[in-house]
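4.2 Preliminary Data

To establish feasibility before requesting continued support, the project team ran the inverse folding procedure on a target of 226 residues. The structure was first converted into the token representation described in Section 3, and no sequence information of any kind was made available to the design step. The complete token record follows.
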């Protein structure tokens, strides 16, 4: 799941460090995809650092439920199929595009249907102190985290997740993600066709997109052994 979909499950939480933890695996991956951390079982004498770890573990749990769900398997496959005609001669792998497209579309639907407050999400991140985040990275074995903070400051300043409310911006986001792997993923014509397909698919999900959030929330309940 993408940033705002992760936030959905903790939208009423007031602990900014927990909120940061729920999106930190993806923030770190965006900052440097070669960095791999496993802080899942670590403990710190600072409660804020432990809140980040708890949020990190929540992120992994939500992703595990999402990626094993019939919803994800079905819609990532269907998006791959409907986007395929727009990808002639594109180097992008269709499955990869279907995977990230359904995640960003879900974020878009949460915004347009006012299920989350994007500014509140960013405010949580802005309230986190750098020394606490550095303490988390030190504990996890990442001794030089300067690269992360350069990315993190841009992420908070740009607030680009607001743009997911607009269909052409979803296409733009997909393009930017693909450009991390492929230099010229799409032509202008392909981007226009992708926007048309995404707009139609977004509309088709209006009636049942919350089902996957309800399904995951039920699996996250303690009495379900998660």
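Position-by-position output of the design step:
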């Amino acid at each position: 799941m993408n940033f705002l979909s992760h936030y959905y499950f903790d939208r009423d939480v007031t602990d900014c460090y927990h909120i940061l933890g729920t999106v930190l695996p993806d923030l770190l991956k965006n900052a440097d995809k070669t960095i791999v951390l496993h802080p899942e079982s670590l403990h710190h004498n600072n409660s804020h650092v432990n809140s980040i770890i708890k949020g990190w573990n929540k992120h992994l749990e939500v992703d595990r439920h999402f990626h094993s769900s019939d919803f994800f398997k079905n819609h990532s496959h269907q998006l791959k199929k409907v986007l395929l005609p727009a990808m002639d001669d594109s180097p992008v792998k269709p499955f990869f595009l279907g995977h990230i497209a359904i995640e960003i579309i879900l974020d878009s639907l949460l915004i347009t249907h006012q299920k989350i407050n994007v500014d509140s999400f960013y405010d949580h991140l802005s309230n986190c102190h750098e020394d606490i985040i550095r303490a988390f990275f030190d504990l996890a074995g990442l001794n030089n985290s300067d690269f992360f903070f350069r990315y993190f400051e841009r992420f908070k300043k740009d607030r680009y997740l607001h743009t997911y409310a607009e269909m052409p911006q979803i296409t733009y986001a997909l393009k930017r993600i693909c450009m991390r792997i492929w230099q010229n993923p799409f032509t202008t014509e392909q981007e226009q066709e992708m926007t048309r397909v995404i707009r139609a698919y977004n509309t088709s999900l209006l009636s049942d997109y919350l089902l996957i959030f309800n399904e995951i929330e039920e699996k996250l309940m303690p009495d379900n052994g998660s």
